[in-house]
Every structure is written in C-alpha cells, then in structure tokens.
C-alpha cells in the first residue's frame, strides 16, 4: 500500500514535471518565433528607410540592435554607420568614430555568419575606410585582405553588381597609384598588390552587365577608365550617362 501510494505520487510528480516541461517548450518556441518576427520587422523597416535615403533615421533604428546576433541586422548597421559618416553634416571626428564603429559591426556580422555575402562585402568596405585614418602602410597591407573578401562575396552572390564594381575600384586605385607610393609598397612588401586600368575596366563592365545602370559611380568610373586608356569617344559616352543619372543620394550628387 505504501509502495502503491509512493508510485502514484511519483507518477503525479512526473506528469506535473512533464507538463511543466512541455509548457516551457511551448513558451520558448513562441518566444523564438516572436523574436524572429521582430527581426524581420526591423529588417523590413530598415530596408524601407535605406531605400528612402533616411540615413539618420536608419542608423537610429539599427543602433538599438547593435548587440544582436543576427548577421543581417549587423551588416546593415555597418552600412548605416558608414553612410552616416559620408554625410557632409558629419564632423571629421564623428567620421573617424563612425568608420571604426562600422568596421566593428561588419566584423561581428562576419563572425555570426561567414556565409553571408553582404557581411564579407561590408567588412571589406569598412576595412578600406579605416585605412584612410591609419596611413599608407596599413592601407596597402589591408589591400589583399580587402580584395579577398570582395571575391568571397562574389563567390557567394555572383549577381551582386556593387561588389563587382568595388573590385573594379580596387583595381583602378592600384593602377593609378603614384610612383612614390609604389616605391613605399615595394619597400614594405615582398609582393605589393598591383593592377591595370584594363583589369578595372573589365570589372566595371561586368558590374554593368550584372545590373545595367545600377549605380552612378560605376558609370563615372567607366568614363574615367576610358579616359586613362585614351579612348575619349567611349569616355564621353559613359560620362554623359553619369551626368544624366537621377541624383537620389549625396553620392549621386557628387558624381
């Protein structure tokens, strides 16, 4: 009789524990689903603000989620920080601070998801920006890493015209490098990064093929690269397209 009562009590406790466990699972699952919906809502709102050119509002929205583990949120925050730094109203000290902040967010996005093409892309962009504050040695030293991340981004998403354009910019920059910087690079590195205007041109055309008329700066650099190659007829064609491009952003206006 004692044994029977003990077993009944044990069964009741086991049943109670089981029900509590199942309730916990249900609540946890609901919380996870709710959290994922929240992330989706923030991403949707962020993309709307980005498309509307609301740089400051976008940054304020995303910086609230700087401790997130979501790579999609983090690379968007890196981009927003960088875009804020590009505004003419941003002071020199704020530009510097935002550049390092953006790199930190991009690095975190990459740590959270190494297979996210945009995390590679924005890490490379932000690493390049930081080089502007750290001198020629660091900038050249980072160049190979930057190109590797751009190439990895293209492997993960071959249709992303912006990343292809950015490799073109990388090539153009090293093709245009002044002689004294080349000399410094040769002194500091056994095999310094090099490129040609022909290689840059190939990437700019590849970007245009991937997404025609997608970016005012790609049109501008097609024109500039043709000028470097002494092809004024083609340069005029692309520079005219850049000039007529509808200016939606601060960068478009500069172009």
UniProtKB/TrEMBL annotation:
<keyword id="KW-0677">Repeat</keyword>
<comment type="subunit">
    <text>Interacts with microtubules.</text>
</comment>
<dbReference type="Pfam" id="PF21033">
    <property type="entry name" value="RMD1-3"/>
</dbReference>
<keyword id="KW-0963">Cytoplasm</keyword>
<dbReference type="GO" id="GO:0005739">
    <property type="term" value="C:mitochondrion"/>
</dbReference>
<dbReference type="InterPro" id="IPR049039">
    <property type="entry name" value="RMD1-3_a_helical_rpt"/>
</dbReference>
<comment type="similarity">
    <text>Belongs to the RMDN family.</text>
</comment>
<dbReference type="GO" id="GO:0005876">
    <property type="term" value="C:spindle microtubule"/>
</dbReference>
<dbReference type="InterPro" id="IPR011990">
    <property type="entry name" value="TPR-like_helical_dom_sf"/>
</dbReference>
<keyword id="KW-0206">Cytoskeleton</keyword>
<keyword id="KW-0802">TPR repeat</keyword>
<dbReference type="GO" id="GO:0008017">
    <property type="term" value="F:microtubule binding"/>
</dbReference>
<protein>
    <recommendedName>
        <fullName>Regulator of microtubule dynamics protein 1</fullName>
    </recommendedName>
</protein>
<dbReference type="GO" id="GO:0097431">
    <property type="term" value="C:mitotic spindle pole"/>
</dbReference>
């Amino acid at each position: 009789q004692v044994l029977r009562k003990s077993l009944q009590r044990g069964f009741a406790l086991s049943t109670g524990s089981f029900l509590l466990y199942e309730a916990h699972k249900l609540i946890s699952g609901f919380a996870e689903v709710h959290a994922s919906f929240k992330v989706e809502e923030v991403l949707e709102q962020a993309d709307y603000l980005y498309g509307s050119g609301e740089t400051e509002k976008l940054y304020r929205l995303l910086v609230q989620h700087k401790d997130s583990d979501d790579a999609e949120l983090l690379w968007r925050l890196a981009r927003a920080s960088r875009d804020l730094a590009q505004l003419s109203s941003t002071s020199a000290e704020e530009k510097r601070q935002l550049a390092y902040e953006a790199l930190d967010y991009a690095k975190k996005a990459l740590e959270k998801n190494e297979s996210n093409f945009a995390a590679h892309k924005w890490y490379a962009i932000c690493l390049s920006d930081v080089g502007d504050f750290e001198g020629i040695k660091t900038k050249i030293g980072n160049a190979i890493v930057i190109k590797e991340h751009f190439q990895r981004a293209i492997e993960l998403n071959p249709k992303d015209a912006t990343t292809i354009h950015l490799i073109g910019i990388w090539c153009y920059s090293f093709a245009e490098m002044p002689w004294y910087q080349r000399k410094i690079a040769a002194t500091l590195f056994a095999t310094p990064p090099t490129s040609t205007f022909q290689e840059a041109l190939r990437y700019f055309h590849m970007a245009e093929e991937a997404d025609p008329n997608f970016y005012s700066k790609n049109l501008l650099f097609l024109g500039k690269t043709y000028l470097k190659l002494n092809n004024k007829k083609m340069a005029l064609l692309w520079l005219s397209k850049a000039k007529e491009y509808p200016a939606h952003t601060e960068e478009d206006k500069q172009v």
